[in-house]
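Q: What structure does this chain adopt?
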Amino acid sequence: MKQELLSRAECTAMRGIAILAIVLHNYCHFIGKIVKENEYQFFTSNNDGLWRVLTNPDELLPVHLLSYFGHYGVPVFLFLSGLGLVKKYEQGDKVATLPFIRYNYLKLLRMLIVGFSLFIIVDILTPGRFQFHWYNVVAQLLMYINVLPTPDKIIWPGIYWFFGLMIQLYIVYRLFLYRQKNIWVIALIAICWLLQAFCDPEGETLNRLRYNFIGGMLPFGLGILFARIPNVGTNCSHVGNKTFPRWEYFVALLLSTTLIVAMSFWYHSWFFIPVFIIIGTISLVKVMSKWMLSIITWIGSISAAMFVAHPIARKLFITVAWKQDIYDGLMLYIIAVIALSWAVKQLIERIPKPKL
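A:
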């Protein structure tokens, strides 16, 4: 009998952990005096800042850590996306390319259009309005904005770069990896790594690559490979069984955390941090108590709405951190994000789901 390493609830809990990391990161890194992350480029100055706050911690240490490491929720989503595609499309009838791309584009657009519409209304009504241009709005809605020059300056809210990344990965999966041998997945991961490995760590070329599927191929490919493992696979549609003792997950969580921090200080090891982010997230889910797992699973169930809604709340509450107190603003922001996400989820569900 096939053992399942992850249950449906655990997959959803992983989404909950990932979205919490992203939501908190996207608030904390907007605060000027807080340590910034190395997400698209590798800045030694950011690592120097991390080392400074680790060796001389103060009351803002949690905010520094969320700012620097929180963006690693994205690889968890990419891992789960790769896993889900294999389970949905590689166990039944073959799906044609164009219907597959159309379906997944509309699935993403269904979320994007609600969040983006609400955001631009709030953005216009609050100080610090962004200068939108029609051609960039079209590129955002058609999800090719990532490939344009200086994506970090034209994508707003910046979090929505994820939609362009996902549609690229869907296309790459269907054209090159769908029902192909695992060696194709491994080869594409290696090619994408090599394309980045020889770039200037602080250069624009690396920035452009990591805004697109090349930067996300490692965790996405790991999800595909993980889902195809025989005998100890995963099925997020059923209740799973833990295949390892709980203490082993504790050890894996501790080792992963240590390696994530250590690998952050070297350019070539930095590329492979998502591997240990995924291992650490799986381990964290496995060692959670039942009551904590239920809370995180509920958050995971509204993760899509939280993703598109939290930039709206950030625009409204970031000024509290700037003018008053960082933790006051953070608390108000969290409350607003949860409430707004529930409302956004209701709006998204009123839009008809696309059909394959």
